[in-house]
Design goal:
- The structure is a single chain.
- Strands 1, 5, 6, 7, 8, 11, 12, 13 and 14 form a 9-stranded mixed β-sheet that branches. Strands 2-3-4-15 form a 4-stranded antiparallel β-sheet, with helices on one face.
- Strand 12 and strand 13 form a beta hairpin.
- By secondary structure, it is an alpha/beta fold.
- The longest helix has 218 residues.
- The protein is elongated.
- The protein is built from 21 helices and 15 strands.
- Helix 4 packs across helix 11, helix 8 packs parallel to helix 11 and helix 13 packs across helix 15.
- The two termini are 168 Å apart.
- Among the domains are: 208 residues, no CATH class; 274 residues, Kinesin motor domain (Kinesin).
- It binds adenosine-5'-triphosphate.
- Adenosine-5'-triphosphate (ATP) binds next to helix 14.
Length: 814
């Protein structure tokens, strides 16, 4: 065991390095002694003297079984001086904290005694070796056991003694004496003879002496040992006390340790508390920091919001500012635009006024041009007359020249006689006056001739008949329409006849035949004729209206036969009539005639009058018919009348009437073909030169479909419509018939239509009926019916006599 192990404290707790120096390691006494024993057991051989003394006879001492007493006794002899030092070392506080074991070890490792060299025994007495022996007994004084040393030194002794081989060799117990013996023998000299008894005896004696001395030494040793035992006992007691003191100290230390543990615990607790506190502090700090961070974030966010808000506000302010500016600018611009518009409007107005003025000017200029033209014509006539006169005058002039020459001769003869010249001027002036008078007379004659023309024209119209009937056959619109009826137009020259091949008829004999029915009218238009040509025929009647007559133009026929196409299509009779009227009015201005023209459009549906120029949204007022017998004029109360001061207005009026009719058509199916429409054009003309005044009316009537009720197979409202249509058409026939008969009573009031057209059907009025014919076989019966009705009308003569022709039906060849 080394010193460091001895110095280890008993308990597991190692005191800290800064432990107080007074503290002694907690080591038990037994342990100390054990350690010493062990140390000795390893390091110390038994005392040399004893070894020699008991070599071979004494029991070999058990080195590890030495008691404390023996061990205590060992250093006493040799360490009498060291014991007090040791005890004092134990008793006094060790400033460096050296342990007892360490002290013991130091005693062991540094023996104060010196081992007696063996050479001393060879030459010295026994008394001289004692202190050395005592010294060798002390602790640590013994030389360490050498492994090289033979356990049985006697063997070697024997060898060394004999120096030669021995035959009868006795073994001797190995003793420590061997060495001495050998040394002694060697000291006696090498020449001694082993077989010398004396010598051997001497040797034994000397050995005996030595042994005796050894005995004495042993006794002394014993005494010394006993003293040592006592001393050891004392020392043990001291040690026991020391142990108790150490125990006390130990317990003290334990309590101190407990205190320290407690302190450590409390420190640990404090530390834990501190840690906890620190943790809390840290958490608080962290919370604070987080809070601060949140605050900062919030502030930052607020700041950012504020900045954003500021920016937004700034932006909004800017936007507002710019918007206001923009609005201002826009308002200014719009004001400018408004001003410009106003200016433009004013300019436009001015322009339109100027335009109107220009128009008027142009019109005036035109009329002037026309007047100039007529003047020119007149002047040309006058010029012709004048040229004639000039020719006459040139003849006269030649005569005059002859006369002039003669006169010159006379003048020359008479020398400046001017009387004749002035006479000549006077005659020329009178001639001019005559020419002007003639021109005025010619103008008056022209006006008179216009009046005469009107009269003659009217007479001509009357001769043609006040009721005229024309027939028009529409073309086949589509090949899929069906079979075409056999219609012929035999009189190509005059175009007044139409031959209809009737349906198949069976005679009593069973012969099937078709009758050809010829119809003759004032004019027959085949399908190839255009509206333009048709209008050419009726233009004279329009002229009559301008001349102050009431004119009525009907379109009669079954549905789909072409009534509306003839009357109201874009190039129909109504637009053409109005255009013609405009043109004529303009022409008549040169004859000092000025006209006003008013138009209205009414519809007779189910024996009720409707204003087609008033839309249903404007509210419907009941129309009433008023007659002015003195003027022979009819007025429709509450009916819209449009001043037609331009030809375009007629087209607008027709469109408006068509629209209003379409709206009405949604309530009653196909209204247009189920009602009579009447376009009324009132014309009032005045002649500024003659003071004449004329008032005429042109009625353009598109009659409802003339199909028979039983044919149409109508029911309900449709039947009522058809009944009303048939009734009004029958009334028209009755009126015409009554007029033709010259009957005193004409049943105008039997239907709304005849009542409305009262002054346009009888008396001085002119009536033209178009009978419209479908070319289809399927419509043959209706065609024949219509043509028969038309013939009846055609045979009626109102006012003046009219030659009539008789036509005969014949049987068709086919
Ligand atoms: N002479 C014609 N040339 C070409 N097409 C015609 C002619 N006459 C009539 N039509 C066409 O025949 C069709 C029927 O004509 P329209 O509508 O004038 O008949 P309507 O007798 O007025 O019929 P409704 O009594 O039903 O009004 C129309 O499509 C029209 O354009």
């Amino acid at each position: 065991m080394d010193r460091s192990e001895n110095a280890r404290p008993q308990s597991g707790l190692r005191p800290p390095s800064h432990y107080p120096a007074t503290t002694i390691p907690n080591m038990g006494l037994q342990e100390i002694t054990d350690s010493q024993n062990n140390a000795r057991a390893h390091t110390m051989p038994p005392p040399q003297g004893l070894k020699r003394a008991y070599n071979g006879n004494l029991p070999q001492p058990e080195p590890k079984r030495k008691t404390l007493v023996e061990r205590a006794a060992e250093p006493i002899g040799a360490n009498k001086s060291s014991l007090p030092a040791a005890t004092s070392a134990l008793s006094r506080p060790n400033p460096k904290g050296t342990s007892i074991a360490a002290l013991a070890a130091s005693n062991t490792t540094k023996p104060p005694s010196v081992t007696v060299p063996p050479s001393r025994y060879t030459s010295t007495s026994s008394g001289a070796s004692r202190p050395n022996f005592a010294q060798s007994v002390g602790p640590g004084s013994r030389p360490p056991i050498s492994n090289a040393r033979p356990v049985t030194s006697m063997g070697s002794f024997g060898q060394s003694v004999s120096g030669r081989p021995r035959g009868n060799t006795r073994s001797r117990p190995a003793t420590a004496m061997g060495d001495h013996t050998m040394e002694v023998s060697s000291g006696l000299g090498q020449q001694a003879n082993g077989w010398d008894v004396d010598e051997r005896l001497h040797e034994v004696e000397s050995q005996f002496k030595v042994m005796k001395e050894a005995m004495n030494v042993s006794l002394t040793d014993r005494k010394t040992l006993e003293d040592a035992v006592d001393l050891a006992k004392t020392r043990a007691n001291d040690l026991e006390r020391e142990r108790i003191r150490l125990d006390e100290k130990n317990s003290l230390l334990q309590s101190e340790l407990d205190g320290l543990r407690h302190q450590v615990q409390s420190l640990t607790l404090t530390l834990e508390k501190e840690q906890r506190r620190n943790k809390y502090d840290l958490e608080d700090k962290s919370r604070e920091h987080r809070h601060e961070l949140d605050e900062l974030k919030r502030e930052l966010k607020d700041e950012a919001d504020r900045v954003q808000r500021t920016h937004r506000e700034a932006l909004e302010a800017l936007e507002r500012h710019y918007r206001v500016e923009l609005e201002d600018e826009r308002a200014q611009k719009s004001r400018e635009v408004q001003e410009l518009r106003t200016k433009l409007g004013t300019e436009q107005q001015d322009l339109s006024i100027a335009l109107l003025a220009k128009d008027r000017e142009i019109q005036n200029l035109r009329s002037q041009v026309e007047a100039f033209k007529s003047d020119l014509d007149r002047e040309q006539t006058v010029k012709g007359t004048l040229q004639q006169q000039i020719a006459e005058m040139s003849t006269t002039s030649m005569t005059l020249e002859d006369r002039n020459r003669a006169l010159r001769a006379q003048i020359e003869f008479l020398e400046s006689d001017s009387k004749q010249q002035s006479d000549s001027f006077t005659s020329m002036e009178s001639r001019l006056q005559d020419a002007l008078r003639l021109a005025e007379e010619a103008r008056l004659k022209l006006i008179k001739e216009e009046t005469e023309r009107r009269m003659l024209f009217n007479k001509y119209q009357e001769l043609k008949g006040n009721i005229r009937v024309m027939c028009r056959v529409r073309p086949v619109l589509d090949p899929t329409e069906g079979d075409e009826a056999k219609i012929l137009f035999p009189d190509l020259k005059t175009s007044t006849q139409i031959d209809i091949t009737g349906p198949e008829e069976k005679s009593s004999l069973g012969n099937v035949s078709r009758r050809v029915m010829p119809f003759e009218f004032d004019r027959v238009f085949d399908p190839s004729v255009y509206n333009e040509e048709v209008f050419g025929e009726i233009s004279q009647l329009v002229q009559s209206a301008l001349d102050g007559f009431n004119v009525c133009i009907f379109c009669y026929g079954q549905t789909g036969s072409g009534k509306t196409f003839t009357m109201s299509s874009d190039d129909g009779m109504i637009p053409r009539a109005t255009h013609m009227i405009y043109e004529t009015i303009t022409q008549l201005k040169e004859k000092s005639w000025s006209y006003t023209m008013e138009g209205s459009f009414v519809e007779v549906y189910n024996e009720e009058l409707n204003d087609l120029l008033t839309s249903p949204s404007e509210g419907k007022k009941k129309l009433e018919i008023r007659h002015d017998d003195s003027r022979k004029q009819t007025t429709v109360l509450h009916c819209k009348s449009v001043a037609l001061d331009s030809a375009d207005k007629v087209a607008t009026m027709l469109r408006e009437a068509q629209n209003n009719r379409s709206v009405a058509a949604t309530k009653a199916n196909e209204r247009s073909s189920r009602s009579h429409s009447v376009f009324i054009l009132k014309l009032v003309g005045e002649n500024s030169a003659t003071g004449e005044r004329c008032e005429g009316t042109l009625n353009l009537v598109d009659l409802a479909g003339s199909e028979r009720l039983k044919h149409s197979g109508a029911e309900g409202d449709r039947m009522k419509e058809t009944q009303n249509i048939n009734k009004s058409l029958a009334c028209l026939g009755d009126v015409i018939e009554a007029l033709g008969r010259g009957s005193g009573h004409v049943p105008y009031r039997n239907s709304k239509l005849t009542h409305l057209l009262q002054y346009s059907l009888g008396g001085n009025s002119k009536t033209l009926m178009f009978v419209m014919v479908s070319p289809m076989e399927a419509h043959l019966k209706e065609t024949i019916t219509s043509l028969r009705f038309a013939t009846k009308v055609h045979n009626t003569h109102i006012g003046t006599a009219k030659s009539t022709k008789k036509t005969k039906e014949r049987i068709s060849d086919s």
